[in-house]
């Protein structure tokens, strides 16, 4: 298992918007980090940089000892496979079955796209897809079209699809934002159970401060592109987390506990 180290990352887009400004922190293997911040604070940009969809303008992002910002697409591919993504809007293929959606999760590990189509997939892959669906409690819905599921069920399918990848790291971008409170809790409970049982590293963007406090071991806060909070559980209150959502907040009172993680 590898640590993820973000070193002095700045990202300025072509139109001059600086989304991240000199951001540094390390996520240790197996750590459960909640990333918080107001709309536009840079959370998604940071995720895109960590998952290789955006290149930082300066700084480096290490996966273990490899600087992913300098790797070619080909060299980055095996690392990309270790990064499982869960999105707010699930990103399923809605006119395909639940089973087929989960099989697609193996695409990065399979030799060709064809190997992940249900009629071409090996028995081994098919069995694994059913195991992943079973883990999220949806094996009985394998044959149903993805668009005929509730939001909570769709997110569970997305989690099963991610498990097909055998990820080391889970990057969850507001995984419960599209769900009602009850379904959201169920998804968080399931996601956290899975990351704990597999000792996965997780970085999860959340807007719900109570949920964040319940699940996070560590809280990283961004404000206008800057890292303004890095605290472990027990060091931070709901009120302090809430100040991250006020663009006018001043953060001088927060110590960045990052030093304790380095
Ligand atoms: N491709 C882009 N080109 C120009 N500016 C961008 C681009 N992507 C994001 N930004 C800007 O960068 C800043 C950070 O955006 P980002 O989406 O990372 O924030 P966020 O914290 O994820 O917000 P939200 O909670 O609303 O998803 C914003 O000002 C946004 O408008």
From TrEMBL:
Q: Does the keyword DNA-binding apply?
A: no
Which GO terms label this protein's molecular function in UniProt?
Answer: ABC-type phosphonate transporter activity; ATP binding; ATP hydrolysis activity
Which keywords does UniProt give here?
ATP-binding, Cell membrane, Membrane, Nucleotide-binding, Phosphonate transport, Translocase, Transport
| Entry-linked Pfam families | ABC_tran
- InterPro entries to which the protein is assigned, alphabetical: AAA+_ATPase (IPR003593), ABC_transporter-like_ATP-bd (IPR003439), ABC_transporter-like_CS (IPR017871), ABC_transpr_PhnC (IPR012693), MetN_ABC_transporter-like (IPR050086), P-loop_NTPase (IPR027417)
Cellular component terms, GO, for this chain's entry? membrane
Which Gene3D superfamilies would you find in this protein's record? P-loop containing nucleotide triphosphate hydrolases (3.40.50.300)
- Domain ABC transporter per the UniProt entry, residue ranges: 4-249
Designated name of the protein: Phosphonate ABC transporter ATP-binding protein
Organism of origin = Alteribacter lacisalsi
Q: Gene that codes for this?
A: phnC
């Amino acid at each position: 298992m590898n640590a993820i180290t973000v070193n002095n990352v700045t990202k300025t887009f072509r139109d001059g918007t600086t989304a991240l400004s000199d951001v540094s922190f390390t996520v240790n293997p197996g750590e459960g980090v909640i990333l918080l911040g107001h709309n536009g604070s840079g959370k998604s940009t940071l995720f895109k940089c960590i998952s290789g969809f955006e290149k930082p303008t300066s700084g480096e992002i290490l996966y273990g000892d490899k600087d992913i910002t300098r790797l070619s697409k080909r060299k980055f591919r095996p690392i990309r496979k270790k990064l499982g993504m869960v999105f707010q809007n699930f990103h399923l293929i809605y006119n395909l079955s639940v089973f087929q959606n989960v099989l697609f999760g193996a695409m990065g590990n399979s030799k060709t796209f064809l190997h992940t189509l249900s009629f071409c997939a090996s028995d081994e892959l098919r069995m694994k897809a059913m195991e992943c669906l079973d883990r999220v409690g949806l094996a009985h819905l394998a044959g149903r079209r993805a668009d005929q599921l509730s939001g909570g069920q769709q997110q569970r399918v997305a989690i099963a699809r991610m498990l097909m990848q055998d990820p080391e790291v889970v990057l969850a971008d507001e995984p419960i934002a599209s769900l009602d409170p009850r379904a959201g809790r169920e998804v968080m409970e399931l996601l956290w159970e899975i990351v704990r049982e597999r000792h996965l590293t997780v970085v999860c963007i959340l807007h719900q401060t109570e949920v964040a406090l319940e699940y996070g071991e560590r809280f990283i806060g961004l404000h206008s592109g800057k890292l303004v909070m890095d605290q472990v559980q027990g060091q931070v209150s709901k009120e302090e987390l809430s100040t991250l959502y006020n663009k006018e907040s001043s953060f001088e009172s927060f110590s960045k506990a990052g030093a304790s993680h380095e």
